[in-house]
Prior knowledge:
five-stranded mixed sheet; alpha+beta
Amino acid sequence: xxxEDTNPTAHDVRxxxxxLELVSSAMYVEPLTAxxxxxxxxxxxxxxxxxLGLLADxxxxxxxxxxxxxxxxxxxxxxxxxxxxxEVIDRLLALGGSSKRGTEARGFRxxxxxxxxxYAQYLTFRxxxxxxxxxxxxxxxxxxxxTALADNGSGDLASVVAxxxxxxxxxxxxxxxxxxxxxIGRIARQRGDRLLDPTAVEGYLSQVAPVPFSSxxxxxxxxADALHAAGPLGELEVTIDGGPPITRPHRDTIPLGGSSxxxxxxxxxxxxxxxxxxxxxxxxxxxxxxxxxxxxxxVKGVRVRVGNIQVGxxxxxxxxxxxxxxxxxxxxxxxxLDRRIVPNGRRDEFEANAHHANLVNQLSPIGRDIARRxxxxxxxxxxxxxxxxxxxxxxxRMAVIEQGAMSMGxxxxxxxxxxxxxxxxxKVVEAEAVEEGLRGDMLATIKGIEAELSRVCAGTTVDxxxxxxxxxxxxxxxxxxxxxxxxxxxxxxxxxxxxIIQRLAA
Length: 506
């Protein structure tokens, strides 16, 4: 008999196994994002350990990363609260049902723990809570999972999880008295093998993880103080293979390929929420704005952090700038405090709502100010290049005049062109884009060139062709005139004329 009611019951709802594929591989296209998910969980566990008194206020929250290229395995271990044995199944097998929702924790969707399973043959979680004498292990078998996902008759989500997960309890032995560990085993080879590359892993964690600023970044203390005033930073001591603790990538000097730029000024900002309170705290480090910062510097673009962990990448706030390109010239961060500004499931963007829109709108004036700085810097550099080119032009022409090989008419023309170069220099000095502090040095340069021109014009120049018969000198001068007129490189032309004169004198 057909059912008369149309409303489904809980028994009618079926959660398909394909959800596992979404949370274990489809959501995370960049392998390194797995480290962010596990660092985020570790930070939440360490915060809980502090709240429970398992870690004293002065005790460091530690996360140790171990890379084993030979075994193709990664282990990530923290000294947080861990998961008690009796809660392991409920907490580690729940998908999309995190107990963190509604708390101050960074993660709350309960899907990130499987982030690395798409890149490995197995994923093992180990935990030992305070006072326990055993270690509980939960292993997700990636090969069995992929087989089950490909099998149309393998059942629903719950039956697939039961088939691919193994749980065991082992003696604690000499393991730490309290820890939680993730082991990513038999990692598949990816392009660049980034999950196992120490340089790539350290570079990623230095940008994303809640680690302190380096002592080589002198503005770091002021930034940390401003952030501490708004709430706890939850900084962690993160190491790779027992090395020194990782620090943020910011330094006083930013490499720009063949040159560099110095951070000279810091702007700290507070952004209010829609209905009061503090939505975010931010900082921007101003430098010379010579151009786009290379990606290899690891500080390119405005970053956004929630719970002191980076969300997305350096392009996440490009929209605050009049032109996207100016974001790549910028160094800065926005630390979100308002929990209504929510990262999306992949943590590569934010959910669209009024609170996020308010944040972006308040940052737009900052973006316009930085764009103005970039344009001003570009205009200033253009003027300085123009001045330097005029200086070089004047110096080269005076060297030709002093050589004395050209005809008198040609030398007079060169003197006039030196005067034109000086006029161009003076025009640059008067330009609005030139800083007041530079004008004095530029005027001193102009004064020196004018004195040199007077010396060259007033000096008695020895005729370099006095060794040549007088009736042939004009012919040589005409040739020299042609060499200078036809050459695109005045220095090379002078060198050629010098060689000819030396050959004539031999």
